[in-house]
Amino acid sequence: MRRRLTLLVAATMCLALLAFVVPLALLLRTVAQDRAVATAGADAQSLVPLVGTADPDTLRTSVEHVAAGARAPLTVFLPDGTVLGTPAPRTDAVRLAARAGVSRTVERSDGREIVVAVLGRPDGTAVVRAFVPATELTHGVTRSWLVLAGLGIALLLLGLLVADRLSRALVVPISELSAVSHRLARADLTARARPDGPPELREVAGALNHLAGRIQELLREEREQVADLSHRLRAPLTSLRLETESLPAGDAARIAARVDAMERAVTGLISEARHRRETDVYVSCEATSAVRERVAFWTVLAEDTGRAVTLDVTADGPLPVGVAADELAAAVDALLGNVFAHTPDGTAFSVGLAPAAGGGAVLTVADEGPGLSSDLVGRGASLGGSTGLGLDIARRAAQSSGGRLALGTGPSGGARVTLELGPPQAPPVPD
């Protein structure tokens, strides 16, 4: 934008300078020509009284004196053929003036010829001739044009400098606003724009800062609501724990363990909702241990429902991914929960975890059930009477790390969900 504004000003100034300089240059040339012709004509007219009245000796002396001080060649042609002053041939204009008594200025290829007929002499008509060479007609014009061109270039450079300063005053605040908006898009809600530049840009910066503050307030309110909602789940969990005491010992221990796991998840959700900072988006975890832990949890339920579980982890070492451990666990729980919710008992499923080519990991959950439509990736979409949030939870976990979720069909015709998790990202350097 800065370069375009400068080019626009340069083009406008060039047109203005051309419209001003070209006519002025032509005017300077015309003025120089008129000045040279007028000077030569005045020298010729100064001899007219002497040619008409002076005696030959006085006339000769006066003509030679005037011709010596004239800028252009000055010649007097007497009726008897005598030539005084600067030697010159009798041209057609001189003969015409002597014959017809007409004074005139004649344009020639090598200059301008001024002839003045002097009447009243007893021996006939004398002619005073002044010749202005072409070099004299343009004397000083080249220098004036160079001065004019230099002045135009200086004005153009000055205009470009002013245009660059003005465009910088516009572009720099706009660039800062763009940088702040990108930081806000990356969830850095502490970013604020510095009101600078024209009043309109200062108003935009103020509006952007107000928007960022409002987003912070809305997120704070939303997290408080999530924390309150999660806190309300503790009462039913407490009641469920008390109910397990009336069950047989084996069932009570198993159900109490699951209630404890659910209570830990709720506690973690409350802690995350209350204490996680808006700018803390550069998180990571080790995917192998998180996936193994969640698969082990669901394996117990799989044994109760007659499902065969296969876990295939091909990583030789840790697999760091750019997603929090609780979010990854929630994504795995959502995918495995869908398997239990939408396939009949006895349906086998497998979980695979492998390193991705560019860093991160690829998590695959496949079952031998009836399959899954790609329309169910949308939030709230469900054909099985559920909330429809499971796949969306997994999708958002993948996208938060720079990955994606893909649905497909497994070798046996069942559903195959692939979760691509990006590698951890380094936090930005503070400004």
Could you describe the 3D structure shown?
It is built from 11 helices and 12 strands. The chain folds into 3 domains: 2-142, PAS domain (Beta-Lactamase, 2-Layer Sandwich), CATH 3.30.450; 186-280, Orthogonal Bundle (Helix Hairpins), CATH 1.10.287; 282-421, Histidine kinase-like ATPase, C-terminal domain (Heat Shock Protein 90, 2-Layer Sandwich), CATH 3.30.565.10. It is rod-shaped and about 160 Å long. The protein is 56% helix and 16% strand. With 431 residues, the chain is of the alpha+beta class. The longest helix is centred in the N-terminal third of the chain and has 52 residues, at 2-53. 22% of the residues are buried. Residues 377-387 have low confidence and may be disordered. Pfam families: HAMP (PF00672), HATPase_c (PF02518). Residues 402-431 are annotated as: Disordered. Residues 168-220 form the HAMP domain. This is histidine kinase. It comes from Streptomyces fructofermentans.
Could you state the oligomeric state of the chains shown? single chain
Largest sheet: 5 strands, antiparallel
Shape: rod-shaped
Order of helices and strands: HHEEHEEEHHHHHEHEEHEEHEE
The CATH H-level homologous superfamily of the largest domain = PAS domain
CATH level 3 topology of the largest domain: Beta-Lactamase
Strand percentage lies at 15-25%
What structural class is derived from the secondary structure elements? Answer: alpha+beta
Secondary structure: helix percent: 55-70%
The rounded distance between the terminal residues' Cα atoms is: 24 Å
Integer average pLDDT: 82
The largest sheet has its strands arranged as 2-1-5-4-3
Number of domains: 3
Q: Any guess at the CATH architecture of the largest domain?
A: 2-Layer Sandwich
